[in-house]
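Async update (no meeting this week)

Hi team, since we skipped the sync, here's where things stand on the single-chain job. The sequence we agreed to prioritize is pasted below, unchanged from the tracker. I ran it this morning and attached the output directly underneath so nobody has to dig for it. Comments welcome in thread, and please keep replies under the output.
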Amino acid sequence: MIYIGADHRGFELKEELRQYLTKQGHGVEDVGAFELNEGDDYVDFAKGVAEKVSENPSENRGILLCGSGHGVDIVANKHKGIRAVLCWNKQVAKQSREHEDANVLVLPSDWISEHHAQEVIGAWLKTEFSGEERHVRRLEKIKELENDNYV
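Output:
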């Protein structure tokens, strides 16, 4: 399942991407915003996506949008099991899956077009974790940090 969320700055692009993903045959659950509200807070939507993905972080995926991508990225990464990454091109998206096994893709809606976002999402969803020993070792260290910091 792909969980998608955005604040007011990412709302329009989220709506377009949700439709695109559905047409591509992906299971998509929208966690908001459900209407354009310039007074909303990115924290709420990033929290919603991160909580859904963290229920099964090895299988679930998330896509978050806000103007810069910074805010939702920070919020998502506060959740155990979440490896959220801010991506702006296909190469960065691919590497985030190959090296970090990223499970939440963050897109900067102020700086990316719908077409470009679709390309980034496509590359991200098609790319598998490499499983290379060095990347596995690093992910294990991240899990240790999470276990130490999340009781």
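Quick observations from my side:
The mean pLDDT is 97.
The radius of gyration is 14 Å.
Reply here if anything looks off.
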